[in-house]
Structures are given as structure tokens and as C-alpha cells.
UniProtKB/TrEMBL annotation:
The lineage of its organism: Bacteria, Bacillati, Actinomycetota, Actinomycetes, Micrococcales. One of its GO terms (molecular function) is dipeptide transmembrane transporter activity. InterPro entries: MetI-like, MetI-like_sf. The keyword Transferase does not apply. It comes from the Bacteria. The chain crosses the membrane at residues 12-31, 98-121, 133-157, 169-191, 270-298. Signal peptide: none annotated. One of its GO terms (cellular component) is plasma membrane. Keywords: Cell membrane, Membrane, Transmembrane, Transmembrane helix, Transport. It is found in: Cell membrane. This is ABC transporter permease.
Amino acid sequence: MLSYLRKRIISSALPLLVVIVGVFALARLTGNPASLYLPLNATEQMRADFTARHGLDQPLLVQMADYFGGVLQLDFGTSLRTGESAATMALRAFPATLQLAATTMVLAILLAVIVGSWAALKPNGIADRISSFVSMAAASIPDFWLAIVGIWIFAITLGWVPTSGVTGAAAWVLPIGTLVMRPFGALVQVVRGAMVSALSEPYIKLARSKGASQTRVVTHHALRNASAPALTVAGDLTVGLVNGAVVVETIFGWPGIGKLMIDSILQRDFAVLQACVLLTAVAIFVLNIVIDLLYALLDPRVRPASAVSRARKARPAPAPVETAPANA
């Protein structure tokens, strides 16, 4: 298992490095921050002093080397807007995104397991048709459109929930309701397909012949074997939530890492933007490793071959069978 984990870390480290370098280079293409932070009547000398003070007058490779040197020392630079440590700002905003993503995925998984298992009990029945329609519609609705419609109906027209902020439980309703639709729709289809396949296996028929109830058959037998593909899809959707909650956080004013990224891009706050991207990339990197390990634990077929070979070597060799000579 350790060799499997080591290979996964090495294979995932290269995309992480590419993302960090790409964001570093693309951020510089947005222009000189001096145009935003200095007054319109600033002289060329003032612009040159501002650029030199923040190290932006150096060649791009020199800036990149300085940045990676600071990262190795856990120094991500200082915000141009506030003068605060970029790492502190990113770490302060990231828990809000994690809370939103974790709550959304827990709710989406619970609802998908219930609806998907219910639909799989009678394939092509009324429940199956209704769940298929609802799940496909939920997976197809754009997040930004659903967020705007939700604000218009439930916040402005009915006044049930606030339009933005994080104060009170009501402020969580619209952001979670918006984000939960897409993973719920995708997971229902996956759980339904996996459960239909599992419920047709011989061991399910054996369990039913022994008098096991429908609830026990679904929860103790079929759902366990159907969880592996659902776990993979749920992991990918969780990564998408952590990485793609930018629109929802911006619309609802959620103080997460996505909103901080947007603000940093608009303000050309390079240090904060790079810290946010690096923190998000590391979180996704760790999440992918955890998902791979959980999947390997659930499905022995994906475990590394070395573990299987060691298990085979540990088995005692069968004793040789002695045969009588042919001329005896």
C-alpha cells in the first residue's frame, strides 16, 4: 500500500506544479498593479518606485524563483491591498469553502443514496422514471442561473432567507441549495445503476432466500458493493466543489477562497491569488490521494500488485504428491 501511495503522490505532484507555474505566469499578464493602486495623475517615477518596491521590475524567471524560494520557507508574500500576509488571508477564507463543500456533499450523498436505491428496487417503474427526470434536470441546471432565481424568489419576493452573508442558519440555505443540485443529480444516476447491477447478483438472491428483509438486503449487501463507483464520482464532484464554488461564493457574498480569488484577480493582488491557488491545489491533491486510498480499501481489485504478490507468497506451498514408479 505504501508503494501505491508513493506512486500516486508522484503522479499527482507534476500537475500541481504545472498549475502553480501557470497561475504565476498568467497573473502577470493582467497588467501592472501600479495602474490600480496609484492615482491617475501618478508620475512615471512613482510607478517605477511602486514596481521596484514590490519586485515587479525583475524578469519573470527571477520573480518565479523568488516566489518558489518563499514557498519553501512558507512565505507567500504580502497583500498589495491590505499589507497582510497572503497565507493568513488564504487560510482564513479556506475553512468557509470547506464547510460549504462538506455540507453540500454530505447532503447530496445522503439524498442520492436514498433516491437511487429507491429507484433501483423497481427498474423502469414510476419511481425510477421520476428519479431519472429529477436527477437529469438537477444535473443540467447552471449554478449561476439557479442562484439568481433562488435569490429572486426566496430572498427578494418571499423574504424567507437573506440574499448574502453567513449570519444564521438561513444564510446557508441558498448557497447549499444551489451547489447540491449538480452532485445530487449525478450521484443519483450512479447509485441507481450500481444498485440495479448489485441487486441482480446471485448473493442477493441467496440473502433473500434466507429470509433477509428488503431493508437489510439493500443496506447490508447491495449498497456496500455499489459504494465503490459512487465514491469515485463523489470524490470528483467534491474536488469540483472545492475548486468551482467561485461563482456561488461571489453571488452570495460567501467569504470563501473562491470569492477571495475573484477579488485578488480584479485587484491584481498577485501574492494573495497565488496563495489561494496553491492552497486549493494542495487541498485537491490531498483529497485525490484520500479518495484513491478509500477506493483501494473498498475494491481489492485496484490494490497494487505487490500487495497481492506478497499475500500469495505468504501462503504455504502445497506438499508434493509422491507417485509410484511406472515399472512398479
